[in-house]
Design goal:
This protein is of the alpha/beta class. It has 2 domains: 141 residues, D-Maltodextrin-Binding Protein, domain 2 (3-Layer(aba) Sandwich); 91 residues, Periplasmic binding protein-like II (D-Maltodextrin-Binding Protein, domain 2, 3-Layer(aba) Sandwich), CATH 3.40.190. It is built from 10 helices and 10 strands. It has a 5-stranded mixed β-sheet with strand order 2-1-3-10-4. It has a 5-stranded mixed β-sheet with strand order 7-6-8-5-9, with helices on both faces. β1, α3 and β2 form a beta-alpha-beta unit. α3 packs across α9. The protein is elongated.
Length: 282
């Protein structure tokens, strides 16, 4: 073989290699967020710390929902637990679309996000979707000590266990011009702790989120758990869903399909029932 033929073959091989690389490059550049999750083999899920009954110490409803979502995508779960910031916009920035300045995040998806139009409008960098629970502000009572409860006026004369730094606490502190303020004991961290105080007999009434109170009291006929009868409380509560980065629409579609399947199959209801919380399709 002459030198000219050899040079020609070398050039042809080089051009073929360049062409193959150029053909492969668009595939790598066009890898979608869902592709990346599957290639990595794990779904990174943002989970709030200390949020009973949804997540406490690696257990709870949201941990089980996260596991079910990862299974639906055919990957393993990689939980990313974090402490809530001052507001939801901060959490979405830190865990969804940018990442925290301390170096963690963002996650592929954040759970327990209010599916709320104003929040969506305030955070165009995120997609908020897939509601899987409807939360409410609620009040629980000992049926024997408080037989009837149709209005807040029936709280008169009863001490109420309620977490002070909560929506339930703020609503009760300001209700009826502060008429019940002196009856409120607000040392509790969350509504689950307040429900324990009610169950122990220390208080006749407790307030918090429906999920918190039910997780302690549901199924015990001595207690009633009802929506808080306050005109300032969201009448139908609010839907709780999840959020991904705006560009992750294919991942959002896959997660939405997974939530739909979990709902239809009854698995979501089973997850909530294990936490002693009632569930209805949102």
């Amino acid at each position: 073989m002459g030198k000219q033929d050899l040079d020609f073959r070398r050039r042809r091989c080089l051009l073929a290699a360049v062409a193959a690389g150029a053909a492969a490059l668009p595939l790598r550049l066009s890898a979608t967020p869902l592709d990346k999750v599957k290639s990595r083999g794990s779904l990174i899920v943002g989970l709030y710390n200390d949020m009973p009954p949804f997540h406490v110490g690696g257990k709870g409803i949201d941990m089980e929902v996260a596991q079910a979502l990862a299974e639906a995508l055919g990957v393993r779960l990689s939980p990313l637990s974090f402490n809530a910031d001052e507001n939801m916009n901060d959490d979405l920035r830190n865990l969804v679309w940018r990442g925290h300045y301390l170096g963690f995040g963002p996650a592929d998806v954040l759970l327990h996000v209010p599916v709320d139009k104003p929040l969506m409008d305030q955070t165009p960098q995120a997609l908020i979707f897939a509601p899987y629970y409807r939360e409410r502000v609620a009040i629980a009572r000992n049926r024997e000590r408080v037989p009837q409860f149709e209005s807040l006026a029936q709280l008169t004369g009863h001490r109420v266990a309620v977490p002070g730094q909560s929506l339930a606490g703020w609503l009760l502190i300001g209700a009826d011009g502060g008429a019940y303020r002196d009856q409120l004991v607000t040392r509790w961290k969350d509504g689950a702790e307040a429900a324990v105080a009610l169950k122990s007999g220390e208080f006749p009434v407790a307030a918090g989120l429906m999920s918190e109170l039910e997780s302690v009291l549901r199924g015990d006929s001595r207690f009633a758990v009802e929506p808080l009868p306050s005109p300032r409380a969201p009448r139908d509560g609010w839907a709780v869903g999840m959020a991904v980065k705006k560009a992750s629409s294919d991942l959002a579609q896959a997660l939405q399909a997974a939530v739909n399947d979990l709902s239809r199959s009854g698995r979501l209801a089973e997850i909530f029932a294990r936490a002693n919380v009632s569930w209805r399709a949102v």
